[in-house]
Design a protein that fits this description.
35% of the residues lie in helices and 18% in strands. By secondary structure, it is of the alpha+beta class. Helix 1 crosses helix 4 and helix 3 packs antiparallel against helix 5. The protein is globular and about 45 Å long. It binds flavin mononucleotide. Flavin mononucleotide binds next to strand 3.
Length: 171
């Protein structure tokens, strides 16, 4: 199996983490992977990232997204609509970035979780309030938590393949 195949196949949602910091170098690599994603318009990608390591802020965020609780770092993905060329495509742009970030976390021996924020208005408003976003032009999309997996949580292969969902030539 190539490294790539291994990463894709073993990525799992890791919801609890060890009490161990993630290096700034790894955080930057994860964000770089996010920015490497396909976007609806090259050069007009909406993504911006808020790195959160402050324990008090993490605790406040965990009140909105409980799985943040044990994470040593959370990265909030914000769509800055003013940067976007295709204004309606921001959730797709952001989703591509989010998945790249989760895969890079696995590549670095870490675990990650996509904590959904958009499109639930109530959650978006709470997150926007916490981080001072205007929620009109700066849309909170999701929170990616990253850390070393806690005991009982690890990236491992789970077969999600379902041949019945593949259609050839016509549906
Ligand atoms: C749009 C989206 C939102 C998600 N939001 C949450 C969330 O708020 N909390 C959570 O624990 N997992 C969340 N997840 C993770 C999914 O529950 C998880 O990917 C799914 O159960 C499949 O498990 P796997 O990632 O291990 O393959 C989200 C995933 C996606 C794609």
């Amino acid at each position: 199996m190539t490294d790539f195949e291994e990463i894709i196949k073993t990525r799992r949602s890791i919801r609890e983490y060890q009490d161990k910091d993630v290096s700034d170098e790894d955080i930057l690599k994860i964000i770089k992977a996010g920015m490497q994603a396909p976007g609806s318009r090259l050069g007009a990608e909406p993504w911006e990232f808020v790195v959160i390591k402050n324990k008090k802020t993490l605790a406040e965020l965990a009140e909105i997204k409980p799985r943040v609780k044990t994470a040593p770092v959370a990265i909030l993905l914000v769509a800055n609509i003013e940067r976007a060329f295709y204004k309606l495509h921001w959730q797709q742009d952001m989703a591509a970035a989010a998945e790249n970030m989760l895969l890079e976390a696995v590549n670095l021996g870490l675990g990650g979780l996509w904590n959904g924020v958009a499109p639930t208005e109530e959650t978006m408003e709470k997150v926007a309030d916490l981080f001072g976003l205007d929620n009109e032009n700066q849309k909170p999309f999701c929170v990616i938590t990253i850390g070393y997996p806690a005991e009982g949580w690890q990236n491992k292969f789970m077969d999600k393949f379902d041949e019945g969902r593949i259609h050839y030539e016509k549906y």
